[in-house]
Specification:
This protein has one domain: Ribokinase (UDP-N-acetylmuramoyl-L-alanine:D-glutamate ligase, 3-Layer(aba) Sandwich), CATH 3.40.1190. The longest helix is centred in the C-terminal third of the chain and has 19 residues. It is globular, with a radius of gyration of 17 Å. By secondary structure, it is α/β, with parallel strands linked by helices. The structure holds 3-hydroxy-5-(hydroxymethyl)-2-methylisonicotinaldehyde.
Length: 278
């Protein structure tokens, strides 16, 4: 059985980060170890007065215990990280557990719609940029890509712009950049990836639903990580992640009043298992 470890926060309410990654990657038939980086009463995007307990201090102890046990992982996947200090400690985790046989996915969760999430500063962006240089796959949205590249966020969304962003993201040092929130027309939304070695781009699109839903980036990154762990190619992983994320958004629409509560991905897990076995 394949084994992944995912390193991100637990938002106790408001489906995102670990409460999304753990069920999704597990449903794909992959053992999923976790390192919770913080415990929040809710995520930070849409709720007032959330609590935040930082667990950075626990990570070195978990790392050294796992090292003593001789544990290894086929995939290492990071999401929301709460502080620049935490990013450095996760970077040490990569040094301890990265091998020639496994791979690292960094979802540089930092913001959306041109803005950084609550509590994040340029120092966190700098740390994330360094973390991305150690990754095999990085999965920013358009906002995160512009912060990583130090360029102004632009509403421009065209094939030319997508390709330019991907090329520049590859220069940060990761092996394969993957960009989400790609939308060249009113009807479709999807994701794009770039392989700098062969200089090839992959694109995948689903129906565009004009409704922002919280946690969809985490859903995408979880499925993408699971698919690569199972040996799918980059275009196949991209397709599976776009297909499942689009399905989750559509399944949420009938009850989508409080979209910051997250999307109804649970209703779509059966489809995901089918995609894995196709
Ligand atoms: O979905 C990304 C995410 C994860 N974790 C926390 C967040 C967010 C986005 O706002 O606040 C705590």
């Amino acid at each position: 059985m394949k084994r992944a470890v995912t390193i991100q926060d637990i938002s106790c309410f408001g489906k995102c980060s670990l409460t999304v990654a753990l069920p999704i990657i597990s449903a794909m038939g992959i053992e999923t170890a976790v390192i919770p980086t913080a415990v929040l009463s809710t995520h930070t995007g849409g709720f007032e007065g959330y609590t935040f307990r930082d667990l950075t201090g626990d990570i070195p102890g978990i790392t050294s215990h796992w090292k003593k046990l001789g544990l290894g992982f086929d995939a290492i996947y990071t999401g929301y990280l709460g502080s620049p200090a935490q990013v450095e400690i996760v970077s040490d985790f990569f040094d301890s557990f990265n091998t020639d046989e496994n791979f690292i996915v960094v979802d540089p969760v930092m913001g959306d719609s041109g803005k950084l999430y609550s509590g994040f500063t340029g120092e966190l962006v700098d740390g994330m940029r360094r973390l991305c240089s150690k990754a095999d796959y990085v999965i920013p949205n358009m906002t995160e890509a512009s912060f990583l590249l130090g360029i102004p966020y632009s509403e421009e969304n065209s094939e030319k712009h997508t390709k330019e962003l991907l090329k520049r993201l590859a220069e940060l040092g990761c092996r394969y950049p993957v960009l989400t929130g790609v939308r060249w027309n009113e009807k479709e939304q999807g994701a794009a990836a770039y392989d700098p070695v062969t200089d090839t781009y992959s694109f995948s699109f689903g129906e565009h639903v004009n409704r922002h839903m919280h946690g969809t980036g985490d859903i995408f990154a979880s499925v993408f990580t699971g698919a690569v762990t199972l040996g799918k190619t980059l275009p196949q992983a991209l397709d599976m992640a776009v297909r499942f994320t689009t399905g989750c958004i559509k399944a949420t629409l009938p009850t989508a009043d409080e979209v910051w509560y997250g999307s109804c991905f649970e209703l779509c897990l059966g489809d995901l298992i089918k995609y894995v076995n196709e």
